[in-house]
Design brief:
The chain is α/β, with parallel strands linked by helices. It contains 14 helices and 8 strands. Strands 1-2-4-3-5-8-6-7 form an 8-stranded mixed beta sheet, with helices on both faces. It is globular. The N and C termini lie far apart (about 75 Å).
Length: about 400
């Protein structure tokens, strides 16, 4: 009986171990597309662009003593019509760049470029520092998707100060010291009970322009990534003659796992037929007026987004669509917990930063989930082709 119990226990343990590895080991790991580091992803992007004969440019990031890291925003251009332009951007939030970079690799491999079609611009990792170090913020601790503002808009934000709702949550969001006995869950549950999930989410994602090094800090001046890319686009695209524009910005971390939410601006929803995304996926297409209940609810007061900033570079547009494709990963509280711990470690406990940065990576990039990767590749390429068809 004793031997039987031991054998049964061993069999259960072996079966459990086998099941674990079966579940967690990717069946199709997509080694061609999902690279384990920023530098490897950049190498793949450059190689794919050269194979397709695209113009390839590298914009070095040197702010805040990062010159020795060899970080670059890489931009590839396929020349088509000067009046129709499509821009596909990855890695605004650094660590989210694994998905966007993989989509670009897949598209570059499979797409047959048409010289009679639109000009296509691929922007590979707008925030290379963030991807290299598995952070959502850039080298100055700034959220680039809150930073696309004019000088006058920055001054207005600074003069107004942080929203009172952010000030109320400041200590929860930004611990003043390393996290030893943090009591995260009791604190969070208390704030949820007092203010409610939707209110807290809106406060967090709206961010602030007052407190450097805080979560969702939008900065107080335009960051180098935006300066470099906006100057590049003005120089290489002749924005004054562009009449039609589609802008796609890839993100991860919001919504159900593997489910991509398509956030279309009101102008784009009005002038382009969003049925191009297919009847089956219409429940994923939302606009500014239909955010409630979606992955992007609570974003009404967010300023400085990429779409508005880069769209404003093209003053004579007749038709345009700004599209954010957001892939869900894990639940929102898990994302917040990882970001909060990482920011505290970065500023107060450097010995823990390697762990917390990996935790951040794990909530934005499901590297061991084959199904998630397949969804990202399939939906990323499909939406790219669907939006490209709008410009033909």
């Amino acid at each position: 009986m004793g031997l039987y119990k031991i054998s049964a226990s061993l069999a259960i343990a072996v079966a459990a171990t086998a099941a674990f590895y079966y579940i967690t080991t990717p069946k199709k790991p997509h080694p061609k597309y999902f690279m384990p580091t920023y530098y490897q992803a950049r190498r793949l992007f450059r190689n794919n662009c050269r194979k397709k004969g695209l113009e390839l440019h590298s914009l070095p990031i040197t702010a805040n003593d990062t010159a020795d890291l060899g970080l670059t925003i890489d931009v590839a251009i396929y020349r088509g019509s000067n009046e129709k332009v499509m821009i596909h951007l990855s890695g605004t939030h650094g660590v989210e760049g694994y998905a966007g970079s993989a989509i670009q690799a897949k598209v570059l491999e499979s797409l047959d470029f048409n010289p009679n079609g639109p000009t296509i611009v691929f922007v590979h990792v707008l925030n290379p520092y963030g991807m290299a170090f598995n952070r959502r913020w850039n080298e100055n601790g700034v959220d680039l998707n809150r930073n696309g503002l004019s000088e006058a808009e920055f001054q207005e934000k600074i003069s107004l100060g942080a929203p009172k709702s952010y000030q109320r949550l400041f200590k929860l969001l930004n611990p003043p010291a390393k996290l030893n006995w943090d009591f995260f869950w009791p604190k969070t549950l208390y704030y949820l009970a007092v203010y409610g999930f939707n209110s807290i989410k809106a406060t967090v994602v709206t961010g602030n322009y007052t407190y450097p090094n805080s979560l969702f800090f939008g900065g107080q001046e335009l960051q180098q990534s935006h300066v470099l890319l906006s100057q590049f686009l003005k120089k290489h695209l002749n924005p004054d003659i562009v009449k039609e524009l589609v802008f796609i910005d890839i993100h991860t971390g919001l919504g159900p796992k593997g489910f991509d939410t398509l956030m279309v601006d009101e102008v784009g929803a009005a002038v382009f037929d969003v049925k191009v995304f297919g009847e089956k996926y219409q429940n994923r297409v939302i606009s500014d007026s239909s955010r409630d209940g979606s992955a992007l609810s609570g974003y009404d007061e967010v300023s400085g987004g990429n779409g508005g900033f880069y769209g404003s570079l093209f003053p004579n547009l007749k038709k345009s669509m700004i599209l954010v494709q957001e892939f869900g990963t894990v639940n929102g509280i898990a994302v917040f917990k990882a970001l909060r711990a990482d920011n505290a470690a970065f500023h107060h406990d450097p010995d823990m930063f390697a762990k917390t940065s990996q935790d951040v990576c794990d909530v934005f990039y499901l590297r061991n989930d084959c199904g998630w990767k397949e969804d990202v590749l399939e939906r990323g390429e499909t939406v790219f082709r669907q939006t490209l068809s709008l410009l033909k």
